[in-house]
Structure formats: C-alpha cells, structure tokens
C-alpha cells in the first residue's frame, strides 16, 4: 500500500473517493502475487513428485533384479528331485505265494488267464449296456467280484462291487462309467502281469546260465 501511495503521491488526500481505487489496486496486486506463488509451488511439487516416482521405479527394478538373482542361485543350489516311487502292483504277492507257491512264472500265467477271462466278461457287459439290459451286466459284474476276491485283486473287486450295486439300481449311466473304470483297472493289471512275467523269465534265464557247466 505504501509503495502504491509512493508511486502516486497525488492519492494522498482526504478524499475517500480517491482511496477506494488505490485499495482495489492493492488487493488485485496481492491476489496476483498469491496466484503466482501458488503456481510456483505447484510446479515445484510436480517436479518433486516426478523425481520421487522415478526413484521408486528404480528401486522396484533393483529389487526385482535382486529377487531374480536369489531365485536363480537357489535353483542352482537346490538338490535334484528324488525319483517318484513306483506304484504298488494291483495284486498281493503274499496271497499269490500262499495260493500258487513262489513260482512267479506260474503266478503270471494264472493272472494272464484271469485278465483274458475278465476282458471277455467286460465285453459282455458292454454288449448288455448297448442293449440297455442291466440284469445281464449285473450278473457278469458279480462274476468279476467273485473271481477278483479269490485272487486278492482288491481295486478290481471294489469297482466290480459298485457295478453290481448300480445294476440292482438299474442305473445305466453308472454302469457305463464303472465299465470304463473297470477297463482301465484291467489294463493296469495286465501291465503288472506282463512285468511279473518278464521278471520271472529274466530270473529263469539267469538261473539257467548259472547252472551251466
């Protein structure tokens, strides 16, 4: 205000009408100064925020690189994975030994005969299901139940029992699903029987070579 009055000395008078424009001019100058200061502060804060964001981005990149290096080091120093254990065969060797002795070749032949007969029964079940006749399918499933129980083939026995119950309920959908499961279980049994026969043949060959003069 004093600066304005110094610039305009003629305003120093007792006339109030001349003081009002001076006050308005002073208020306008103060408003412009405040707006200019606010704009400068806004630009400064924007620059600071940009620098902070850049620093944070750089820190994140550095942290990611460090974590990647640690992961690579851990993977290099980690012990090799242990081989998975082989699945147990779908038959009990103890029961086979009690029934047929310790002759693996004989056991393999009997199990192969069982696989062939069971495959024929499953073919009969498939034919009965195509004709939508649950009673014959149930009877064939019961034969599989009896024979698999006698041989100690528990996985096949459990599936065949479920098929018998589905046959009593006349549930064609469940019978078809269990028929597919029985086919898969029989394939697993067939592979195990083949492995048993192969092992028995190798043992016999080694025994024959050892007995030669």
TrEMBL record:
Entry's Gene Ontology BP terms: phosphorelay signal transduction system
Alphabetized InterPro entries for the sequence: HPT_dom_sf
SUPFAM superfamilies per the UniProt record, alphabetical: Histidine-containing phosphotransfer domain, HPT domain (SSF47226)
Magnesium as UniProt keyword: no
Superkingdom as given in the UniProt entry: Bacteria
Chain segments carrying region Disordered: 65-88
Ranges of biased composition (kind: Low complexity): 65-77
Keywords, in A-Z order: Membrane, Transmembrane, Transmembrane helix
Record field: transmembrane: 18-37
Protein name: HPt domain-containing protein
Originating organism: Janthinobacterium svalbardensis
């Amino acid at each position: 205000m004093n600066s304005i009055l110094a610039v305009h000395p003629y305003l120093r008078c007792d006339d109030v009408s001349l003081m009002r424009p001076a006050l308005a001019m002073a208020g306008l100058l103060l408003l412009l100064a405040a707006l200019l200061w606010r704009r400068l502060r806004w630009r400064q804060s924007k620059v600071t925020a940009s620098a902070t964001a850049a620093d944070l981005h750089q820190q994140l990149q550095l942290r990611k690189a460090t974590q990647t290096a640690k992961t690579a080091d851990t993977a290099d120093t980690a012990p090799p994975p242990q081989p998975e254990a082989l699945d147990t065969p779908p038959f009990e060797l103890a029961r086979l030994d009690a029934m047929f002795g310790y002759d693996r070749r004989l056991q393999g032949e009997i199990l192969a005969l069982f696989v062939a007969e069971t495959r024929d029964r499953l073919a009969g079940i498939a034919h009965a299901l195509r004709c939508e006749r649950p009673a014959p399918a149930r009877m064939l499933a019961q034969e599989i139940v009896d024979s698999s129980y006698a041989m100690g083939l528990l996985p096949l026995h459990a599936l065949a029992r479920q098929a018998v119950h589905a046959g009593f309920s006349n549930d064609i959908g469940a019978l078809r699903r269990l028929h597919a499961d029985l086919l898969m279980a029989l394939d697993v049994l067939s592979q195990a029987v083949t492995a048993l026969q192969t092992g028995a043949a190798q043992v016999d060959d080694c025994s024959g070579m050892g007995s030669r003069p």
